[in-house]
Amino acid sequence: MTAPAPAGRARGAGADAVGPLARLDRVSVRYAGTGTWVPQGVTLDLSAGTTTLLLGPSGCGKSTVTLTLNGLVPHSVPSDYRGSVLVAGQEVADADIAHLAGTVAMVMQDPDSQVVTTRVLDEVCYALENLRVPADRIEPRAMSALEAVGMGRFARASPWELSGGQRQRVVLAAALAVEPALLVLDEPTANLDPAGSADFYALLPVLKERGTAVLVVEHDLDELIGAIDHVIALDADGATIAVGPPDEVFGAHGRALAEAGIRLPTAVRLHQRLAARGLLEGAPGEEDDGAPRVPLTLDDAARELAASRLGENDGDSSDRLAGRGPGRADSPGEGARDRGAQPVLVVRGLRVPRGRGRRRHEVLHDVSLTVERGRILAVVGVNGSGKSTLLRALAGLERWTAGEVSVAGRRRRPGRTGRAVTLVMQNPEHQFLERTVRDELAHGMRLEGDEEAAVERAVVGMLTRFDLVDRAGANPFLLSGGQQRRLSVASVLGEHREAICLDEPTFGQDRRSAEALMARLHDVAADGAGLIIATHDMELAAEHADRVLVLAAGRVLAEGPAREVLADAPLLERAGLRPPALVALTRAAAALRATVPACASWKELV
Questions:
Q1: DSSP label at 103?
Q2: Torsion angle defined by CA atoms of residues 429, 463, 62 and 39, in that order, rounded to the nearest 10 degrees
Q3: Of 56, 121, 357, 579, whose CB neighbour count within 10 A is largest?
Q4: Chain segment 145-202, per-residue pLDDT in tens
Q5: pTM of the predicted model as reported, rounded to 2 decimal places
Q6: Dist. CA 44–CA 25, nearest whole Å
Q7: Rounded to whole angstroms, how far apart are CA atoms 364 and 513?
Q8: CA 555 to CA 558: how far, in whole Å?
Q9: Is 489:518 a contact under the CB 8 Å cutoff?
Q10: Cis status of the peptide bond prior to 39, with omega within 30 of 0
């Protein structure tokens, strides 16, 4: 991506006002039909030229807070709020929608909920037309925004012919084109590949220079943390844990945040491990005034790791930190095929086209792979590389024109669905069929004619395992994004499947929920299923996959043991990807002449 040139202070009614551009004072929201107020009275100021990070576990009310700032709550979503929400000096409940639209731009978790046209350029122009921007300025601004997010070459394409991550970039472009005084980002990079996420967050300093106030909700913090001015962290009930500058919040409250299920930056996690093992010099983690101090960025962490006592004395502390001992495998899948694991899914020479007439083109080219029972294959690649298309084809939702797919020894016909293979889609709400969470979980088992008592036992177990007990009677569409994702995964696990395909299964999940979800998927694999996970989360691939397949432009660039593939920086660079944060961090420390272990996964740092 290329950052747009600074254009002075951000536009909007409150950009030059004295005091914060937006102020929330003890705000809680109650949605129509519920008696619950969420979150528990959030207070924060959003000032021009600053970036604020809103943290919290799934379901704590983060997205609800963002919806108050552009007036969707209470003007469009049936709801009311208590407390005060001021944007550019006006109370949101009393403000005119035009005032809010001219001041606030928002990017939601699900890009499909914001796309309204059939051409990428028109989508970005639409926002400017609504604001009555002079006609001769609309297209140049729209194209500049598309170029800034790496989507200029798709200007004439239909958004619905793009991948989910590419559509997310289009929505980002539409928000940037408005040049808002306040930009609200609700997990804006959840559908983006690692390089795309890094490139997008590299735009934040430019926005700061333009005077834009930014509020961002995010779980994966490594690419973002260096650009953050303020942090507010909520617990599972929506109560505030901590507020302040990032070094203060993560230094003084890091353990409390982790206990609440919040994923800490990789640098903070590594610092905690080094400190716990006594591998830091002097009195680590404290400044002269006694205040806790922790590294935040990967560069800071690499310097701390290089300066630590790791490997200093007897030469084996690297092994102790890495938890290495006799017989320890480098990867969870190391030697899997040598131990007699049976293939459950075999794909040979798969070719999948898309489009009609002149727009018809091949998306997957000669793709081959094998997944054994009890194993997890992670499929990684940039947006548009063909990951979702591959999963849809395996599940029978896309037709292939060449090649073959066999499941448990039986060949599948192109474009035919079946019980043997199921798919959890990237957007969970696309799969919901029932009015309550409980009935959604029971749907598949009831279709198969299972006895109601058995269905009820299974549903109770899934509600507990996926932390949805309190939401059993709720409408699936009223869940948070993270809760919807957990429900979509749980709903396909009510009966045995030979192969399960999951498209971004940890999208929108806090640390605790993601770990619980993956633990459940490991249980499913242990019962004999083969799992294929398409993901942008390189840490997830390193921690949980046995093998990794790299897709680039619809072709298999590489396939092999997870640790081997994810540590191959030149390979990942050719695919437009970045290695897991621990790989980058430990290599940077080694470049500083430190004796450190090369690590791809936290399992090597137990």
A1: T
A2: 130
A3: 56
A4: 999 888 999 999 999 988 878 888 899 999 999 999 999 999 888 778 888 888 888 8
A5: 0.83
A6: 7
A7: 33
A8: 9
A9: no
A10: yes
